[in-house]
Amino acid sequence: MAKCAVCEKGVHYGNNVSHSHRRSNHIWKSNIKRVNCKVDGVTKKLYVCTSCLRSGKVERA
């Protein structure tokens, strides 16, 4: 799975817990997009999570 190039946020693992308290495995995927970004004046494609995009940690090309 892809990770954010800025904060390295990736996949989260845990359990789904039903009403009867039976547990099954579950994966939560982070909202990660492939974006054209400016890095040192050069345009590169990076995997960036949407929270980093909204906060302005990445400059889009």
UniProtKB/TrEMBL annotation:
Pfam hit, one: Ribosomal_L28
Keywords on record: Ribonucleoprotein, Ribosomal protein
InterPro entries listed in its UniProt record: Bacterial_rp_bL28 (IPR050096), Ribosomal_bL28 (IPR026569), Ribosomal_bL28/bL31-like_sf (IPR034704), Ribosomal_bL28_bact-type (IPR001383), Ribosomal_bL28_sf (IPR037147)
Gene Ontology CC entries for this record: ribonucleoprotein complex; ribosome
One GO-annotated biological process of the protein: translation
Gene Ontology MF annotations: structural constituent of ribosome
PANTHER family reported in the protein's UniProt record: 50S RIBOSOMAL PROTEIN L28 (PTHR39080), LARGE RIBOSOMAL SUBUNIT PROTEIN BL28A (PTHR39080:SF1)
Xref: NCBIfam families: L28
Family: Belongs to the bacterial ribosomal protein bL28 family.
Name of the protein described by the UniProt record: Large ribosomal subunit protein bL28
Gene name tied to this protein: rpmB
